[in-house]
Amino acid sequence: MIAAIIRRDCARSWTGGSVVIPVIFVLMVATLIPFALGPRPTLLSATGGGMLWVAALLASLLPIDRLIEPDRESGLFDQLILRGARDETIIAAKLVAHWLNFGPPLLLACLPAAALLQLPGEVLLRLEISLLIGTPGLAALALLTATLTAGLRGSSALAGLLVLPLAVPLLIFGAGALGANSGSALKLLAASALILVAIAPFAGGAALRAGRE
Amino acid sequence: MRHVAAMDATGQATDGGPTGFPAARIDLRAVACRRGGRVLFAGLDLTLSSGQSALVGGPNGIGKSSLLRMICGLLPVFAGSVAVAGALALADERMALDMDQPLARALSFWAGIDGHGAGGTGVADALAAMALAPLADVPVHMLSTGQRKRAVLARVIASGAPVWLLDEPANGLDTASLALLDRAMGRHLQQGGIILAASHQGLPLRETVALTLSRPVAGPDDLPDDGGEGEA
User: Fold this and answer.
1) DSSP for A95-141?
2) In this structure, how many other beta carbons lie within 10 angstroms of the beta carbon of residue B154?
3) Residues of A in contact with B99 (CB under 8 A)
4) What is the DSSP string of chain A?
5) B 14-73 residues with CB below 8 A of A?
6) Which helix (H) or strand (E) holds B106?
7) CB A123 within 8 A of CB A178
8) DSSP string spanning B50-100?
9) Contacts B160 to A, Cβ<8 Å
């Protein structure tokens, strides 16, 4: 059943085109930054990595209103629970599917974005590693927020306000991992992401259950 | 009859008949439902075994849908006990079908989870039973109200579950579709399935247990035996 949910979500993202949204978003941010900061290569390559981390964080907000609410509204979750699924299992499957549709495209988008910002090769490598570790945390945070705000009016604005403060540790350690000798920042990033990934199914499952009553 | 409408199983309805689901059973004991701080109904007893059906009636908002959702485990049971043997299939106003998918593919998602294999004969048979076969390639969001209702019923048929919980299954159906629903329900009961339907209008269910939900009148004799009523 987990595999069926993941397959369905991935197929929907790919055929529905929502998989390219974070890609386009990150590329647009990378295009806009030189307009805002001026086209000085030293400035861009010094700040570009952090900028891309902020872009990744903001990109994680984009799909929040489509993650949970449509499936809750359509009765999909009810039918899954009727077939013996637990709320936690559903959210865990949703988390895997969401990361698959969000993480790898984002990592790919950072390649041309880094070129636009003239990031040095080793910074790009560290950016990709830190995003690889950090995006599961971002995905978990987005999914958790989507579950908590499902069914509320104006939920997407509220979701943004909820996610951004909670994402501060990911951003600090993720951007901190871009400098040289950044092993400890990577470990702390991994720890923060791991906590979010571990909490998301249980907190999200509880929110899903509470939302049914 | 106030709020208690109890009727116990009166012998096997399908004695000697073919029973595909001999173990299917629904057992409700003194069930009460509370929503938003109000007790909607209380002291509901119902036992259905293989081949039996029940029609739950009552005015809007009396808790018919809530009763079905309680049996599904989607709502907590306020008082009493609910026991179900056999897989459940629920048809309510929520389709649970992907709107942008063709109908047959959307149904196959559930068939795959139910273990009949996607694209197997289950989906094709269910589509045929609801006269939806010509619409198999039409995206779900293009279907009309009545066609959507039939699609939900097809999902229930394709599930192969012995216990059907139908919430207003006749809503939006035309005469021909009602006949299809009648035939599908008759076949399901003949195979030993159980149907619990909630409807404010009559349904063509033969030999059915009729239940009418009504609000408990405040008074000591109306409290459920286990005294779970804690409303202000």
Assistant:
1) HHHHHHHHHHHHHHHHHHHHHHTT--HHHHHHHHHHHHHHHHHHHHH
2) 32
3) 74
4) -HHHHHHHHHHHHHHHTGGGHHHHHHHHHHHHHHHHH-S-HHHHHHHHHHHHHHHHHHHTTTTHHHHSHHHHHHTHHHHHHHTT--HHHHHHHHHHHHHHHHHHHHHHHHHHHHHHTT--HHHHHHHHHHHHHHHHHHHHHHHHHHHHHTT-TTHHHHHHHHHHHHTHHHHHHHHHTTSSS-HHHHHHHHHHHHHHHHHHHHHHHHHHHHHH-
5) 69, 72-73
6) helix B103-114
7) yes
8) TT-EEEEE-STTSSHHHHHHHHHTSS--SEEEEEEES-EEEE-S---S-TT
9) none
Q: CA-CA distances (angstroms) from residue B72 to A84, A122, A201, B149?
A: 10, 55, 22, 20
Counting every residue written for chain A, the total comes to 213
Model confidence band, residue B220 (pLDDT cutoffs 50, 70, 90): very low
pLDDT, block means (10 residues), chain A with 213 residues: 90 87 93 89 88 93 90 91 92 95 94 92 92 95 93 84 92 90 90 96 94 83
**ipTM of the assembly?**
0.81
Q: Does B220 touch chain A (CB under 8 A)?
A: no
Q: Determine the distance in angstroms separating the CA of B54 from the nearest CA of chain A, rounded to an integer.
A: 20
Instruction: Give me the pLDDT at residue B207, please.
Output: 66
Hey, are the CB atoms on B113 and A82 less than 8 Å from each other?
no
CA atoms within 13 A on the CB side of B12: 15
